[in-house]
Amino acid sequence: MSAALLEVSGLTTRFDTRNGSLNAVEDVSFTVAEGEIVGLVGESGSGKSVTGFSILGLIDPPGRIVSGSVKLNGRELVGLSHAELRSMRGREIAMVFQDPSATLNPVLTIGRQMRLAIAAHESLSEQAANARCIEVLTTVGIPDAARRIEAYPHQYSGGMRQRVAIAIALLNRPKLIICDEPTTALDVSIQAQILTEMKSLAAKLGTAMIWISHDLATVSSVASRILVMYAGRLIEAGPIAEVLRQPRHPYTKGLLNSLPGIATPGQDLVQIPGSMPSLIDLPEGCSFRPRCDFADGECGVMPALSVDGARSLRCHHALARGTAP
Amino acid sequence: MTTSREALVQVEAVSKRFTPDISFGDRLASWLGSPVETRTVHAVDQVSFDIRRGEVLGLVGESGCGKSTLGRVVAGIHPPSNGQAMIDGLTVMGEGRNPLKTTTRIQMVFQDPFASLDPRVRIGETISEGPLAHGLVTKAGAGAYVSRWLEAVGLPADAAERFPHQFSGGQRQRVAIARALAMQPDVLICDEPVASLDVSIQAQIINLFLKLRRELGVTMLFISHDLGVVRHICDRVAIMYLGRIVEMGPAAEIFANPRHPYTRALLDSVPKLVTGSDALVTFKPIQGELPSPLSPPSGCHFHLRCPFVKARCKTDPPDLDGHAHAVSCHFPLTKKAE
Q: In the prediction, which pLDDT does B282 show?
């Protein structure tokens, strides 16, 4: 594996709300290698999006990063000034959000917003900037880009708008793109198109990605490694095919069993009882304890993240490895 | 298409078009003799199907294909522009409609339980309001009646005293289902009932639907874009594309042997869980996007994106053949090819 491009260690992001403080992200550590696609999976409230926002320094009060570090190519990002963060965002790490109709400015043409994104980091002549925009739009599969570039976002369909958002993320050739549920708002046929293109783009340009999603199947078709989060903590990580084939955390296994695509039609799904606890009022010890079949007295203490080769796990009662010794 | 006697819901050649109101300016222009462009959306186009008693029919398609509009026509929320929807031989909407006789026999469960429950009304009142208004239960019996339905959907009886904000998304969806069932409908129309829920909660609600099927024999029209969910719950499936049903038949049959190129492409587009090896997954994405329902293409609606398109497809719209596994295509696929 090549050197780590991004190194997150002990990241904790806290929100102080009227009802009390909560750690949306707690003690999260992972690395992303150059050119690697890492899937970050969890349900709503698991902290996966806040992790992505924290890396980019996009946490606004009442939220703040209380501890931990985020290093990009060895340079610490936590604690950078506003201006330093601005010059880093887009150029070194870019982000693609879930809803492209909310991230594009409705009153500027696509070309204008793209040229602004370039101008934020380098001074290019209008023609050169335009040429780069058209080139990137063509890369993400926008037909007739030279003409479409002067259109407004409302003249694009949802799928095309998401392609534009991806194109903007690619404009300054960042090393890492954080994708926060980039295909969730799209139809399956468009999702399939975008997934295929993102994957080949990442391979072609050598861009690393953190792919945040609640959909295990989508993640499994793009990522090579998976991180599973629950109630703010990383609970299992490893090479994706291995983790999905032999999940070792009861929650990961429960998630897989919940998917209707795998079960026999008409049979009851093996469900996880209950729902995710409130982050303000987490149970003592392992957060998954109230919903876990294997919970016992030992689970009253939060298990540490144990590392075993390429896989890591936060559980006292790791599920058996099956065939492995 | 044969209409068997046991069919509870019959939808006959239903079309639904939406035409926006003509603005004052346009009216003035047309009065002065200039042509006015009317922008009519053909949301549903000549759709027919039956649902037998106790059957669950899945209605699948991408956004904008008209599946929700069709559901609302069947529920009597929108009147159809042409054709009719009938329940037990009674027209749901249109002339001779008896609202009490039909509308209470159909209930809906909507996608977003945060929007479909009144935040200022206690759960018990939300559930009992309909049954009280229609005399299904007396005021004195309402409490017990509500607890019975709360229990049926897996909520504690004391939930009746609480407000929607005290519940999670999955629990709210249970309340919405209880509210619909408390009307003792013949047909339940579910419009993406699990789409806004998390995976682990979604599994709980799917299990609830399976239980309701088994125990109460609920007849359902289950609208969803999620093929995995539909395959799991439904007996039969209808695939919609741009206002028309392109394929309809037993769920197992459709998923194993799709005969319409669109169905096949849709199935291929669904990301599969890759657990075998690190092998790259190759999608076969459908080319292009859904055309605008403002100006649907001529002939077969799918011909612009179809890999097997021939000259005839561009002019001649195919009809749904009358088989149990019906397909609307001039050149249907024979078998699942290599």
A: 54
Nearest to B200 among A191, A215, A258 (CB): A258
Which residues in A lie closer than 8 A to residue B227 (C-beta atoms)? 188
Is residue A283 a contact partner of residue A301, using CB atoms and an 8 Å limit? no
Q: What are phi and psi of B22, to 5 degrees?
A: -80, 130
Beta strands in A55-122 (DSSP E): 63-72, 75-76, 93-96
Q: For position A13, what pLDDT does the model report? A: 95
Cβ atoms of B292 and B225 closer than 8 Å: no
Quickly tell me which residue has 């249109």 as its tokens.
Answer: B94
Cα–Cα distance for residue pair A179/A214, rounded to 1 Å: 12
**Closest residue in A to B168 (Cα–Cα):** A275
Task: Give the residue on A whose Cα is nearest the Cα of B209.
Answer: A268
Q: Are strands B187-191 and B106-109 parallel, antiparallel or unpaired?
A: parallel
Q: Which of A43, A192, A220 is nearest residue B199 as measured by Cβ atoms?
A: A43
Percent of the residues in chain A that have a pLDDT greater than 70, as a whole number:
98
Side by side, the strands of the sheet bearing A176-180 are A93-96, A176-180, A208-213, A37-41, A225-230, A233-239, A311-313, A306-308
B269, B276, B289 member nearest A157 (Cβ): B289
CB B217 within 8 A of CB B54: yes
> β-pairing, A233-239 with A225-230?
antiparallel
Q: Which pLDDT band holds residue A1 (cuts at 50, 70, 90)?
A: very low
CA atoms within 13 A on the CB side of B75: 22
Q: How far is residue B35's CA from residue B47's CA, in Å, rounded to a whole number?
A: 31
Q: Are A121 and A101 in contact (CB under 8 A)?
A: no
Contact between chains at A160 and B283 (C-beta distance less than 8 A): no
Q: What is the mean pLDDT of residues A245-263?
A: 89
Supply the pTM of this predicted model.
0.85
Q: Which among A323, A301, A296 has a CA at the least distance from the CA of A314?
A: A301
Residue of B nearest to A221 (CA): B281
A·B CB contacts under 8 A: 140
The tens digit of pLDDT for each residue in A208-236 reads 999 999 989 889 989 999 999 999 999 99
Q: pLDDT tens digits, residue range A201-210?
A: 888 888 999 9
Taking the C-alpha atoms of residue B191 and residue B196, their distance in angstroms, rounded to an integer, is 11
Chain B hits for A218, Cβ within 8 Å: 271
Q: Kindly give the parts of chain B with pLDDT less than 70.
A: 1-5, 36-38, 93-102, 275-285, 335-338
Q: Determine which helix (DSSP H) or strand (DSSP E) holds B43, and give its type and residue range.
A: strand B41-52
State the residue for tokens 């469900």. Answer: A271
- Residue in chain A lying closest to B208 (CA): A268
Res A309: pLDDT: 87
What are the C-alpha distances in Å from B219 to residues A122, B9, B185, B212, B283? 62, 9, 9, 10, 35
Higher pLDDT pick, A134 / B32? A134
Closest Cβ opposite residue A188 in set B233, B251, B266: B266
Q: Give me the phi and psi of B172, to 5 degrees please.
A: -60, -40
The Cα A10–Cα A30 span in angstroms is 9
| Cβ-defined contact of B272 to A217 (cutoff 8 Å) | yes
DSSP B128: H
